[in-house]
Amino acid sequence: MTYCVAMRLDAGLVFLSDSRTNAGVDQVGTFRKMTVFENPGERMMVLMTAGNLAISQSIRQLIGEHGAADGRSIWSASSMYEAAQIIGEAIRTVHKRDAGALGGFGIDFNVSIIFGGQIKGERCRLFQIYSAGNFIESETENTYFQIGEAKYGKPILDRVINATTSLDEAAKCSLISMDSTLRSNISVGLPLDLLIYETEQLSVTRFVTIDEKNQYFQMLRSTWGEQLKHVFEGIDDPVWDAAPEVTSNVISSTNAYSKPVRVAAPASVVPGDQHPAPYQTLAQQPSGDKQH
Q: Domains plus CATH for the chain?
């Protein structure tokens, strides 16, 4: 499995990917998921992939060397949108060639792609491309995309990232997002590839491969864990069965009705003296209790 995240910000783009692949607990490998297509001064594009490794490698080879059937390629595309279309066509080409054979072995055609960058003359753009070759583009309301094991690293992104976030803060946030994923899912692993692109540079601004010895990443992992613990310990414990006006930490109020849904125990496991009294019909009630 894998985890990749990319962000489109006012200041530029941030890309982060892990490098673990596995086909079972005893078949773990390291394959880099990030590929850069760069013609300095004219275009800088980044592709990150998740899913079946053989499929993603075929797609990457196809778009890097051949392009679309009509002769277009990401190297000549006039816009990032056109380049995303070319990648979508490459996915469909590989699907047409391989999906049937894979299906015969019970293997789904599974690939997810994040593609982003800048071509001279237009703004930075970011796309998420699906197995069918269709795609969506990042807008102001949705500044980041994730593929792979996305759920563990999503909360920090939702709380921190917006279009005005600086590139360094976004890089820090992406690494915390990755750390959360690394801690919770063994199928994601080091080393990581982190790429920063500053708008209008039309070449890679900063890039680093991060392993377990990286000084900043080790500091971030330990500091984030310690700070989370401090924040957790600084939040008051809940107060039970109190009036709301007594404290702001009341979780169970004395004037609020809260009862769990209970299933009655069968008679065979309840002592006889604890059985509830049977219901009485009107005819069974003492004559003095009958209602007229």
A: 3-212 (3.60.20.10), 214-256 (no CATH)
